[in-house]
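User: Can you help me understand a structure? I only have the sequence.
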Amino acid sequence: MRSLAVASPHPGAAFAARRRRLHAAASERDSISHRCWRCEKTQDRSAGSSLRISHLQGILNRNASKNLLTPAAAVSVEPAEAMADLPKGDMWSVHKFGGTCMGTSQRIQNVADIVLRDPSERKLVVVSAMSKVTDMMYNLVNKAQSRDDSYIIALDEVFEKHMATAKDMLAGEDLAKFLSQLHADISNLKAMLRAIYIAGHATESFSDFVVGHGELWSAQMLSYAIKKSGTPCSWMDTREVLVVNPTGSNQVDPDYLESERRLEKWFARRPAETIIATGFIATTPENIPTTLKRDGSDFSAAIIGSLVKARQVTIWTDVDGVFSADPRKVSEAVILRTLSYQEAWEMSYFGANVLHPRTIIPVMKYNIPIVIRNIFNISAPGTMICQQPANENGDLEACVKAFATIDKLALVNVEGTGMAGVPGTASAIFGAVKDVGANVIMISQASSEHSVCFAVPEKEVASVSAALHARFREALKAGRLSKVEVINNCSILAAVGLRMASTPGVSATLFDALAKANINVRAIAQGCSEYNITVVLKQEDCVRALRAAHSRFFLSKTTLAVGIIGPGLIGRTLLNQLKDQATVLKDNMNIDLRVIGITGSRTMLLSDIGIDLTQWTDKLQSQAEPANLDKFVHHLSENHFFPNRVLVDCTADTTVASHYYDWLKKGIHVITPNKKANSGPLDKYLKLRTLQRASYTHYFYEATVGAGLPIIGTLRGLLETGDKILRIEGIFSGTLSYIFNNFEGARTFSDVVAEAKKAGYTEPDPRDDLSGTDVARKVIILARESGLRLELSDIPVRSLVPEALRSCTSADEYMQKLPSFDQDWARERKDAEAAGEVLRYVGVVDVVNKEGQVELRRYKRDHPFAQLSGSDNIIAFTTSRYKEQPLIVRGPGAGAEVTAGGVFSDILRLASYLGAPS
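Assistant: Let's start by predicting it. Here is the structure, written out as tokens:
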């Protein structure tokens, strides 16, 4: 059997002849009606007009080569008896309602109520098809041309959907008129689809004609809903008015002059203060039905708004306005009150769900603002897109309005020394890309002309790569080009803002935010207009990059994902401090600290978005899983929701400290009071510090020496400002400070140690404090910070644990035997008192002689070290500037509260470095 194809509409003379025949006298109409394909214009003053296609069956073969489709605009319409001029200007308000807004009978009635409440003198309302109907109509065409009989059932579903909606909201004559028109249209569509089914093919024009019925029906239903209230209303089939020229690449260009002429002619026939117009559909200059392509209803509203020079075009959607970033990726994204035309344009291009990318073009000419509003939240003011306000602060917050991303891209890199200075290379590259129909989203070229890279959708990269290898086969073989490289799994992040061009430091701030989130940038592009800065990243880093950039420009809070290792005394106290301060940090400092993991030695608790710190102890017992440090770290490092991650080690464990280097390499910041890493083997310490200095990953350890006292910070401040450290001497142990501050009078040494243990100042085994090792570690840390390369074994330490008691098997055994040495301690104290001195256990860093020591020393009673009370620490810095009178830092040096406070302070310092306002 010979296959049949549905012929394309015939342009030019064929259409002119067709129109002459259709404009013939009424006596010829019967003969016209017997032709194979006929489009007739049916006029109904209340219901408007529609396209009707009939006489499809039984004569397809006889007329297959003839023109198959003529739209309504090609059919003669009797001139109106009374002509009315089309008014233009601010009296017009244009509204556009999308498919979601028109999704049900109740929603259509809500739309009618919004239109009726608009106080504007004249209103022009553009509507889309009901929700999902456009997809249903495309599906009809696809089924028919695939010769799938189920298109008949699918068409019945379309009919049932609209009939049910109409019956819900209309009654009487209005319902009868709409259903009559609906029945006629469905009948015609059934015949059209049958013809497509037989041919096994549908031209674009036929497809557009079928699909456009969704808008026709929704416009008619809305017009009836408005007329129910007694408000006069007309509906417009925009195929009679909007004329567009297809330009290829799935785009059309409006013919504004012809569209304006036709609109004036339409209005002359049917003047009305409220007009309901179909979105999405239009006609070609040859009067062939077409569409404005996907999401074209916004475009329709903008075109019509420009034709009537409306005061405003309002786009009604299901969101409160345009967000500063995709709220699915950045929960803190904010609604923007205003956007310039150019900013909205850029965001549309880069995939933000703002508008149809070409919607802005028609309204810009007349400075007509577009307002994006939420039909489900009418109280929200929405976002106004307009000319840039005349005065706005040129700070970073104002100049970067929003961020947008595009995923599933590939980066193609064409590289070779033979490209430099050779005219036509770029043309050849992009000519090959054009030949395969790929869409180039971004281009970047080095000024040396050594390489050109560009981003294309990942689904198109295989054909692009093949085309380039074929085009440059000889150049690759000869070595003029070194490679054509494809990098998959990429995303684009674009920062958008009109005032970026006039604000220094925008690029620096963006790249600093990405670097501090440990995100590598693969390619960069920025036009001279500087409306956007575009970077290409790994797709897996895209969300973190977006959140890091968004928070850095103060569009959202600086968010830190925190993992706590060691919920013991210090860790538990820190968690309580974080809980108590969380609201203040968010409200006053723009910092959002999310604890997404807590692990002890046996169990751990994980969360993707943050643990409720009011219940963490209960959850650690009821919802915990077996502790696994590798899994814990992986949970933190692979969380792409948070741009910045920090591990807080609150243990004193050597094994945990040995992982710091690997964590920093993964881009995880580390904060700790654990002294083991900085006082461990020198080579590992130097390797750790070298990595930390060479990267944007931070390693803070203020609490390792003085708990909450600023010892490390003070030392660094002196060194960084050019001072020279001569000597550091101090009482570094809060435990031993307490013991010797209270070891006076008739008190025995064992009693004071027992008291300190009971008060919680000592470790469970007091020998850990009395051995002096902890002080020696602090001395090593300060010595290394001062530039000395010493090992822990280089520090002589006087242990306060008698030789005979070092072999005790338990703390209890040690405490029982300690009183037998009280006389020795009493004698040493008496000798000191006889000389007017006191005993103090100190650590010393002698920078001049490049040595350190830990020992029990005697100080005069007027010495600052003799003035301490409780568990205070005191550190004296003797430097070139502070030689005669050392710089003294004094304060509590032991206790969970102050140590946790020191760690907390480091966390806030990290947040400040990452962009939080300080």
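Now, to help you interpret it: The two ends are 81 Å apart (CA to CA). The first strand starts at residue 38 and ends at 41. Let me know which part you'd like to focus on.
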